[in-house]
Specification:
binds pyridoxal-5'-phosphate; elongated; alpha/beta; 2 domains; eight-stranded mixed beta sheet; TIM Barrel
Length: 383
């Protein structure tokens, strides 16, 4: 696998010992975010913090982001402390009482159910998260388009509209609004709809979903739309990138005057800036198959296990001894699931550095760090 390894990553590899390291290319991240921002002109760009909440990553993104999407009180407090002036959208399928009390300081509150709306006291600017019954094809993960715990179907949205004192078609038929929120409608301002129907989609597929969400929101008389994240990232063909230019142009064509369109990507913003470096501790053949055992493991980089792919990598050799051929790269956890890449062609020897690419999103922060109590990686930042 030939990967273009930034010179700063190579420099970090030179001094690497058996403690693995994460290297974040913040300069590359800033360039990428600036390009995405330019491509999406006219659409607000928020970053889904769950993809990577590293403080340096958030600081590097801040100049290019209109806001941040957080999905827990922990993420909320983390971003608030780091970037006090940032606009925060608060989402997530289950919210505790302590989290609901944060509404006054959130820019937008993504309501997931009528029961959540009944518990909200506000003041809050609310988007209703809708799960439309639209076909979601080609997605890596589907959060919508059928029965899932994320958001509401149109019946749930209609119930929320009634609670907020907005007339629905059912009200018209029955001659009036049946229910009201105890706090009154003034405390909760309905701003629009939110939808994150799937992750891992190409621009044309995301635009098709956007069209459906816009049509639905407009039918309710709403003019603000958060269209979610979910822009595709290919780990098997890293050179293939999401077509931000086509997506931005498509959104501009769909938007009507006076409407606010917002997106909240995670993976496609930060995946490419992260590298995970680890040394080769052992190379061996077992029942005819070659394995390289690394000083790190998927307790630091769980992405290939959760997504079931081969994590792309480059070998940074430290000797001429590397033997060519297919090899399975494994960590040193006592589980057969601790695999980064299977039977991939590579030349490597004990002592070489393996630099895993695309480790900047859903990587360190989703991994089970304490399993086996190995040392934590070091973190380096290229500026
Ligand atoms: C509500 C919401 N918004 C945004 C995202 C970011 O998605 P992605 O990282 O695929 O862009 C997620 C991911 O699960 C999400 O649940």
């Amino acid at each position: 696998m030939s990967m273009d390894v930034p010179s700063g990553v190579r420099r970090a590899a030179e001094s690497l010992d058996d403690v693995p390291a994460y290297v974040y290319d913040l300069a590359g991240l800033a360039r990428h975010a600036a390009a995405v921002r330019a491509a999406l002109a006219g659409t607000e760009l928020c970053y889904a913090v769950k993809a990577n909440p590293d403080p340096e990553v958030l600081r590097a993104l801040a100049p290019y982001a209109d806001g941040f999407e957080v999905s827990s009180g922990g993420e909320f407090e983390h971003v608030r402390a780091l970037l006090p002036d940032a606009r925060l959208s608060f989402g997530g399928p289950g919210k505790t009482g302590a989290e609901l009390a944060l509404t006054p300081s959130a820019h937008r509150w993504h309501v997931e159910s009528p029961a959540e709306l009944r518990r909200l006291r506000g003041p809050a600017d609310v988007l209703l998260r809708v799960n439309l019954d639209v076909p979601v094809t080609g997605a890596a993960l589907a959060m919508g388009g059928g029965a899932t715990p994320f958001g509401m179907d149109p019946d749930g949205v209609a119930e929320c509209l009634a609670l907020l004192g907005r007339p629905t078609p059912a009200d018209a038929a029955s001659g009036g609004l049946s229910e009201r929120l105890p706090g009154g409608r003034g405390a909760l301002r309905l701003r629009g709809v939110h939808a994150h129907l799937a992750s891992g989609l190409a621009a044309p597929d995301l635009l098709t979903l956007a069209e459906a969400v816009l049509a639905y929101g407009r039918s309710l008389g709403l003019r603000e739309f958060n269209l979610g994240g979910g822009m595709a990232v290919s780990y098997t063909r890293p050179e293939e990138r999401f077509d931000w230019a086509a997506y931005g142009a498509g959104l501009r064509a769909l938007a009507r005057p006076g409407e606010t369109l917002r997106v909240e990507p995670g993976r496609a913003l930060t995946a490419y800036c992260g590298w995970y470096l680890t040394t080769v501790l052992d190379v061996k053949r077992v029942h005819g198959e070659r394995f390289a055992v690394l000083s790190g493991g998927t307790h630091h980089l769980r992405t290939p296990v959760t997504k079931g792919h081969d994590q792309p990598f480059a070998v940074l050799p430290r000797s001429e001894d590397g033997e060519h051929g297919p090899v399975t790269l494994v960590g040193r956890l006592c589980t057969p699931k601790d695999v980064f890449s299977r039977r991939v062609p590579a030349a490597l020897a004990v002592g070489d550095v393996v630099a895993f690419a695309m480790a900047g999103a859903y990587a360190w922060n989703i991994s089970h760090h304490d399993f086996l109590m190995h040392p934590k990686p070091e973190f380096h930042y290229l500026r």
